[in-house]
Design brief:
This protein is mainly β and 196 residues long. It is 10% helix and 46% strand. It contains 1 helix and 11 strands.
Length: 196
Protein backbone atom coordinates (compact mmCIF):
# COMPACT_ATOMS: atom_id res chain seq x y z
CA UNK A 1 0.00 0.00 0.00
CA UNK A 2 1.32 3.49 -0.86
CA UNK A 3 0.67 6.91 0.67
CA UNK A 4 -2.93 7.99 0.17
CA UNK A 5 -3.84 11.53 1.22
CA UNK A 6 -7.54 10.77 0.65
CA UNK A 7 -7.98 8.39 3.61
CA UNK A 8 -10.31 7.87 5.28
CA UNK A 9 -12.85 8.10 2.48
CA UNK A 10 -16.48 8.73 3.43
CA UNK A 11 -17.31 5.29 2.12
CA UNK A 12 -14.52 3.52 4.10
CA UNK A 13 -15.38 1.17 6.87
CA UNK A 14 -13.78 2.26 10.17
CA UNK A 15 -11.88 -1.03 10.18
CA UNK A 16 -9.99 -0.08 6.98
CA UNK A 17 -8.67 3.25 8.29
CA UNK A 18 -6.07 1.98 10.82
CA UNK A 19 -4.14 0.07 8.15
CA UNK A 20 -4.24 2.94 5.67
CA UNK A 21 -3.26 5.45 8.37
CA UNK A 22 -0.31 3.28 9.48
CA UNK A 23 0.95 3.17 5.89
CA UNK A 24 0.66 6.94 5.57
CA UNK A 25 2.40 7.59 8.90
CA UNK A 26 5.26 5.18 8.07
CA UNK A 27 5.75 6.91 4.73
CA UNK A 28 5.77 10.36 6.37
CA UNK A 29 8.29 9.20 8.99
CA UNK A 30 10.58 7.92 6.22
CA UNK A 31 10.32 11.17 4.26
CA UNK A 32 10.84 13.49 7.24
CA UNK A 33 13.53 11.31 8.79
CA UNK A 34 15.69 11.25 5.66
CA UNK A 35 16.88 14.87 6.11
CA UNK A 36 15.57 15.79 9.57
CA UNK A 37 16.02 14.72 13.16
CA UNK A 38 12.94 12.53 13.71
CA UNK A 39 12.57 11.64 17.38
CA UNK A 40 9.91 9.16 18.44
CA UNK A 41 9.41 11.13 21.66
CA UNK A 42 9.80 14.87 22.29
CA UNK A 43 13.40 16.17 22.25
CA UNK A 44 15.07 19.57 21.97
CA UNK A 45 16.30 18.86 18.43
CA UNK A 46 12.94 17.76 16.98
CA UNK A 47 12.79 18.58 13.28
CA UNK A 48 16.34 19.94 13.04
CA UNK A 49 18.04 19.46 9.69
CA UNK A 50 20.63 16.67 9.55
CA UNK A 51 21.24 17.16 5.85
CA UNK A 52 19.63 19.06 3.00
CA UNK A 53 19.08 17.38 -0.34
CA UNK A 54 17.98 19.55 -3.26
CA UNK A 55 16.90 18.35 -6.67
CA UNK A 56 18.28 20.14 -9.73
CA UNK A 57 16.10 22.98 -10.92
CA UNK A 58 15.92 25.32 -13.87
CA UNK A 59 13.74 28.12 -12.50
CA UNK A 60 12.45 30.70 -14.88
CA UNK A 61 10.41 33.83 -14.61
CA UNK A 62 10.27 36.52 -11.99
CA UNK A 63 8.48 35.93 -8.74
CA UNK A 64 7.92 39.30 -7.10
CA UNK A 65 9.14 39.48 -3.49
CA UNK A 66 10.21 35.81 -3.61
CA UNK A 67 13.65 34.28 -3.21
CA UNK A 68 14.57 30.72 -4.17
CA UNK A 69 17.57 28.56 -3.31
CA UNK A 70 18.33 25.62 -5.60
CA UNK A 71 21.09 23.57 -7.21
CA UNK A 72 22.15 23.13 -10.82
CA UNK A 73 24.90 21.15 -12.50
CA UNK A 74 27.78 23.16 -13.96
CA UNK A 75 29.77 21.52 -16.76
CA UNK A 76 28.06 18.22 -15.85
CA UNK A 77 30.46 17.87 -12.94
CA UNK A 78 29.49 19.76 -9.82
CA UNK A 79 26.26 20.56 -8.03
CA UNK A 80 26.35 24.31 -7.37
CA UNK A 81 24.04 26.42 -5.20
CA UNK A 82 22.13 29.24 -6.83
CA UNK A 83 19.60 31.74 -5.62
CA UNK A 84 16.90 33.46 -7.58
CA UNK A 85 15.59 36.83 -6.49
CA UNK A 86 12.71 38.17 -8.54
CA UNK A 87 13.91 36.36 -11.64
CA UNK A 88 17.62 37.27 -11.35
CA UNK A 89 19.89 34.27 -10.85
CA UNK A 90 22.99 34.44 -8.64
CA UNK A 91 25.54 31.66 -8.26
CA UNK A 92 26.35 31.22 -4.57
CA UNK A 93 28.91 28.41 -4.67
CA UNK A 94 32.30 29.66 -5.90
CA UNK A 95 33.92 27.72 -8.73
CA UNK A 96 37.43 28.62 -7.59
CA UNK A 97 39.07 28.67 -4.21
CA UNK A 98 38.09 31.66 -2.12
CA UNK A 99 40.87 33.95 -0.91
CA UNK A 100 42.49 33.10 2.39
CA UNK A 101 42.40 35.92 4.91
CA UNK A 102 44.76 35.89 7.89
CA UNK A 103 44.79 38.73 10.42
CA UNK A 104 46.30 39.22 13.82
CA UNK A 105 48.77 41.19 15.84
CA UNK A 106 52.02 40.52 17.67
CA UNK A 107 53.65 42.42 20.52
CA UNK A 108 57.36 42.73 19.76
CA UNK A 109 60.34 44.10 21.62
CA UNK A 110 62.44 46.71 19.84
CA UNK A 111 63.91 45.41 16.55
CA UNK A 112 62.46 41.93 17.23
CA UNK A 113 61.10 39.41 14.72
CA UNK A 114 58.02 37.31 15.43
CA UNK A 115 57.59 33.61 14.93
CA UNK A 116 55.82 32.45 11.79
CA UNK A 117 52.38 34.00 11.32
CA UNK A 118 51.58 32.30 7.99
CA UNK A 119 53.06 29.71 5.61
CA UNK A 120 52.64 30.74 1.97
CA UNK A 121 51.36 27.90 -0.23
CA UNK A 122 53.03 27.12 -3.57
CA UNK A 123 51.51 28.79 -6.64
CA UNK A 124 49.82 31.69 -4.91
CA UNK A 125 49.81 35.47 -4.81
CA UNK A 126 48.62 37.99 -2.31
CA UNK A 127 49.16 41.10 -0.27
CA UNK A 128 50.53 41.79 3.20
CA UNK A 129 49.83 44.96 5.15
CA UNK A 130 51.57 45.66 8.48
CA UNK A 131 51.14 48.66 10.77
CA UNK A 132 51.82 49.72 14.33
CA UNK A 133 48.74 49.69 16.54
CA UNK A 134 50.33 50.12 20.00
CA UNK A 135 51.35 52.79 20.34
CA UNK A 136 49.15 53.86 17.46
CA UNK A 137 50.78 55.67 14.61
CA UNK A 138 50.73 56.08 10.87
CA UNK A 139 53.70 53.81 10.22
CA UNK A 140 52.86 51.03 7.80
CA UNK A 141 54.11 48.93 4.92
CA UNK A 142 52.03 47.29 2.17
CA UNK A 143 53.57 44.53 0.06
CA UNK A 144 52.59 42.37 -2.88
CA UNK A 145 53.95 38.83 -3.13
CA UNK A 146 53.78 35.78 -5.32
CA UNK A 147 55.12 32.28 -4.99
CA UNK A 148 55.56 30.25 -8.16
CA UNK A 149 56.30 26.65 -7.26
CA UNK A 150 58.57 27.15 -4.28
CA UNK A 151 60.16 30.41 -5.52
CA UNK A 152 59.04 33.42 -3.49
CA UNK A 153 59.15 37.08 -4.52
CA UNK A 154 57.84 40.12 -2.68
CA UNK A 155 57.66 43.76 -3.65
CA UNK A 156 56.87 46.86 -1.65
CA UNK A 157 53.91 48.79 -2.99
CA UNK A 158 53.16 51.57 -0.52
CA UNK A 159 55.00 52.81 2.57
CA UNK A 160 54.39 55.75 4.84
CA UNK A 161 56.81 58.69 4.80
CA UNK A 162 58.50 57.89 8.11
CA UNK A 163 61.68 55.88 8.19
CA UNK A 164 60.51 53.74 11.13
CA UNK A 165 57.92 51.19 10.11
CA UNK A 166 57.16 47.50 10.57
CA UNK A 167 58.15 45.00 7.93
CA UNK A 168 58.11 41.31 7.17
CA UNK A 169 60.75 38.64 6.88
CA UNK A 170 60.40 35.50 4.78
CA UNK A 171 62.15 32.43 6.13
CA UNK A 172 61.56 29.49 3.81
CA UNK A 173 57.85 29.92 3.04
CA UNK A 174 56.98 31.39 6.43
CA UNK A 175 56.04 35.04 6.96
CA UNK A 176 57.45 36.67 10.09
CA UNK A 177 56.61 40.18 11.32
CA UNK A 178 59.51 42.56 12.03
CA UNK A 179 59.44 45.55 14.38
CA UNK A 180 61.43 48.28 12.61
CA UNK A 181 61.53 50.41 15.74
CA UNK A 182 63.99 50.12 18.61
CA UNK A 183 61.00 50.59 20.99
CA UNK A 184 58.50 47.86 21.88
CA UNK A 185 55.50 47.94 19.53
CA UNK A 186 52.43 45.90 18.70
CA UNK A 187 52.20 45.20 15.00
CA UNK A 188 48.97 44.28 13.22
CA UNK A 189 49.14 42.18 10.05
CA UNK A 190 46.59 41.58 7.32
CA UNK A 191 47.32 38.88 4.74
CA UNK A 192 45.16 38.06 1.69
CA UNK A 193 46.16 35.06 -0.43
CA UNK A 194 44.80 33.59 -3.67
CA UNK A 195 45.98 30.05 -4.50
CA UNK A 196 45.47 27.74 -7.44
Amino acid sequence: MTFNAAVPLNSDSPSIFPGQNQTNMARLQTLLGSDHQFNLSAAADDGYHNLVHLTQQAPSGALAATGRLYVKTASSLVQLFYMDSSGLEYQITPTSLAPTRVTGSVALAGSATSGSVYTIPDNSQGTIFVNYITPAGGQFRYLLFYKSGNTFTDSEIIVDASGVRPSISIIGSDIHIVNGSTSAKTVAYYIMVMSV
